[in-house]
Amino acid sequence: FNAGNDISIAESVASPVRLTYDEYANIALRGVCKTSFGSIITWDAGNIYVSDQKHPYRFSALSTYSIDSEILSINPFGTSFLVTTTTTPYVLTGTDPTAMLTEKAEQARGCLNKDCIVDMGNFICVPTDEGIYKIGTGSFELATKGMFSNANWDTIINNGEYLKEATQYKNLYILSLTT
Questions:
Q1: Is residue 166 over pLDDT 50?
Q2: What is the pLDDT of residues 49-83, one digit of tens each?
Q3: Beta carbons of 17 and 62 less than 8 angstroms apart
């Protein structure tokens, strides 16, 4: 995402508390996610940037959130956002870009494949090295607990190499594997 050389964008971003055009234009963004409150969320390897409400081209330094590991994706669910990383997931909540809360999961469970993250409505399923986690606001639950031993799960996924993609069908999480 590069705003180009549009002077109006550069002028609207430049202010003492906003990221300057040069600061924002030089960020290697990895993705974008829309919100229900009129902002967009973008991210790079370790930072989340939430735009001003109703102004998706303006980003304040006050609405930048740092995450302590590499961000793979951000997925909306309900009024929250799941931030999947290589080590520990986070849940980002709030509707004010400058006052959002980040909740870090208690256990380090990195996402193995961002193509296998599925929005199930009020929660999101994420494949990890331990199994499929069901993550919602205030809830980090191993959905596959008791279904597989750690050795069986490791054989099934081969450290994430066999994971291809996943989807939802009639409220079921469907995982596709490849060999």
A1: yes
A2: 999 998 888 888 889 999 999 999 999 987 789 99
A3: yes
